[in-house]
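Dissemination and training. As part of the outreach component of the grant, students in the summer workshop were shown how a complex can be specified as a set of sequence lines and then modelled as a single object. The example used during the hands-on session is reproduced here so that future cohorts can follow it. Participants entered these lines:
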Amino acid sequence: MAAGQNGAGPASQTILVVGGGIAGVTAAVEAAEAGQDVILIEREAALGGRVTKLNRYFPKLCHPTCGLEINYQRIRKNPRIRVMTMCEVQGISGGRGDYKVSVQRHPRFVNERCTACGACANATETMVENPFNYGLDKVKAAYLPHEHAFPMRYVVAPEAIAAGEGEKLKSACAYGALDPDDKGETFDLHVGAVVWATGWQPYDPKNLDVYSYVHSRDIITNVEMERLAAHDGPTHGKILRPSNGEPAKKVALIQCAGSRDLNHLPYCSRICCLGSLKHAAYVREQYPDAEVHIYYIDIRAHDKLEAFYDRVRADPQVKFIKSKPAHIRVGEDGRPMLHGERTIDREIYAEPYDLVVLATGMQPSAVAGYRPTMGLVADEYGFLVPVEGDGEGMFSAGVASGPLDVSMSVQSATAAALKAIQAVRNA
Amino acid sequence: MTTPAPAAAKTYDLSFARWVRDNVNGGDKLNLCMQCGACSGSCPIGVQMDYGPRKLFMMIRAGMKEEVLSANTQWNCTSCYRCVVRCPRGVPVTYILQDLAAKSAEFGYAKGPHENKNFAQAFWWSAATFGRTDERLVTMRYFFSLGFGEGFKRAMANLKTAIGMVKTGRMHIGLPHMTKGRKGLKAALAKAREIEQRN
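and obtained this result:
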């Protein structure tokens, strides 16, 4: 479709990247460094998405903050990138070279004059569930999203404004950064191509009713385990039982909790095996006497990742049990009790644990949030797939396009950036 | 150089899995099984089975026809459907076990006095004859099908329970309850049998 045919405006060579996780950030810096103007919009208050909430990466157990910091430097140094946080796409029309995107900005109540001094946090008495730690702890209602936030700017939860603290917070701020009357806004963007990097959400463990997630605080998900092991998490990095704060010395990691299950997510989420191997390493690093049992159907550590599997397997205190647990009950001592069949020796087991981690899979965010109705199609699971050869300027990257790990997301984002550049230059 | 082939300790019928697929209700879904063990782990009476459903399915694939058809697994299934609800691959475990039981009886693998088979037959006799199950007749027919001595022994052992049930109105005395349209029921069953023969 030729530019300018769909609307009144001239052809735009600006690329819009929707979603500021690792895929969106990568697509944005790659496109901008190749000379395109890029607008990066993010729903949350800070960039980084799910990756920011990870403690370490597999297989090298290095810290995600390292790579994110490099990417944020690339954004800061590049005048071609505009970052908009707390913004969501509401609708889109037009065609390649000439998309009109309507965007909703949610109120942050804090403007760009913020110096992250923290005076507003001291002034508020309202506490809210900490979204950064998946609600495992509480945080002041005026807060920095996390210590590594980009942009480094506070955000005020609507709860504080609702509690009537607006004026108090405003007077506490010495820089005039606080705006209790912020109502948010809607505005339109005119862009030439769109990269959808809307990412994923953890599959809701409440749907797995046989695994009793709601019945025991000691049954957590893999994303919560990341926060438990992180130094800026609810336990400052100590892996403790959420029910009583005691060290978790006997830990069960359950694979395919939701994934590869026709009743839940029929596909393999691809990251959980390696994620759980990493969790085994977290526990064993902290407690020399801890036991970790990994319940699996089969371990999918593909190509180079098998070396990490071998490394974890060499630890005699990490046991691999081939079994999909049938159900979890809460035992008389309050500990979660796993029931099922060990398929190698056909023994029925009932085994108590201090902590059970459900390796819940990845569900595309597009199942709950906005998804484009043109230019891309959602497959039966909600992943966004480009329509080959339709001449559109819409592309998907990262987990929005399918279950991928971080390195694969970065590759897919770079590929999407290249396609978007070609789309706007040929428009 | 030739490698000596190991002598098989068991006999395998390599056409058995295909036969199950083509002849057993739900058998066409058996190839979806990924051996995760959710069925056997969920089974409330799995410990009372020779093999859990997962292992039985593996044995079907391996062609262990004799062991599969003479197993008690299919007979001990109580049709609670927990495995069917939980199976991540949508394998209709209960249907497969039910039809495997019928097939084992048909091919003479459940010989002699066989608790589950005899009970099922007594139950079916009552249902097909009266359109209802009569507790007294089903129980008696089942007990005495195991032999006269055994039947008498069991009847005596259950006498107190039976009297208690009659007293509290949980079991009646007199003619068995029957459905109204018994002619229709008989015709329906005859037609079903005819269709079964045809297939």
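Confidence is low (pLDDT under 50) at residues 1-8 of chain A. Students were then asked to discuss how this feature might be tested experimentally.
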